[in-house]
Amino acid sequence: MKHSQNEIERPEVTQRIIELLDKQNEKGLKKYGTTIDLVSDMAYDWKLMALEEAIDLIQYQQKEIIRLERLLNPI
Q1: Tens digit of pLDDT per residue, the chain (75 long)?
Q2: Which of 14, 20, 23, 71 has CB 3.0 to 4.6 Å from 10, enough for a Cys bridge?
């Protein structure tokens, strides 16, 4: 990894996470016209939103597990 003197050398995994965060922030800005920092604290039930996102994550993970099982154990 080549970096300028002022840049922090980050592991690849960290770099990819930062890239994903940047993409999500861009997507949110395009969709909602603002950043999460500027949204009112009272605009949403943030804990409920987090719970809903976690439930989606669990479903996506289970779907991926099923996909990989099918690849590894074709019928």
Answers
A1: 455 567 789 999 999 999 999 999 999 999 999 999 999 999 999 999 999 999 999 999 999 999 999 999 988
A2: 14
Burial (CB < 10 A; 0-12, 13-18, 19+), residue 28, is: middle
* Residue of 39, 56, 37 lying closest to 48 (CA atoms): 56
Q: State which amino acid sits at residue 17.
A: I
| C-alpha pair distances (Å), 1 with each of 28, 52, 58 | 30, 37, 33
Question: What whole-number distance in Å separates Cα of residue 60 and Cα of residue 42?
Answer: 29
